[in-house]
Amino acid sequence: MAVRSDGRPATTHYRVLERYRAHSFLSVRLTTGRTHQIRLHLSHLKYPIVGDPVYGGRFGRPRGASEALATCLRSFGHQALHAAELAFDHPRTGRRLALQTPVPADFAVLLDVLRADALEAARRTPVGSTRRPGRD
After folding, report:
1. What string of pLDDT tens digits covers the 136 residues of the chain?
2. Could you tell me the pTM of the whole model?
3. Cβ(54)–Cβ(38) under 8 Å?
4. Is residue 98 within a helix (H) or strand (E), and if so which, with residue range?
């Protein structure tokens, strides 16, 4: 799979929900439904998904990351993707079904560790500094 000018059209809309030092938590909505669409589009933008062995590249510890974050990222055993909401028409009845589910426990732990790492980095950055934590 690749992003190509002569490829089939695919549209991915995203919104940043939270920013961390070297990661972001996004809400993503698809207009089309191509194979690997989210993974491919985000990787193409240089924002690969945590735990994605195909489009995410090898593990890289973010500069200045806490040991807890490095361990959590290294041990996260799958893609950090979660379908919080799905909606579709039932194939037999035609009735619209809308399903929602919270993030799984390991994903919630990852988000908590990312938040804690970002807070710690902010505490270490001098007030009034223009230096971005993790970007030395």
Report:
1. 667 777 788 899 999 999 998 999 999 999 888 889 999 999 999 889 999 999 887 777 888 899 999 999 999 999 999 999 999 999 999 999 999 999 999 999 999 999 999 999 888 877 666 555 554 4
2. 0.81
3. no
4. strand 96-100
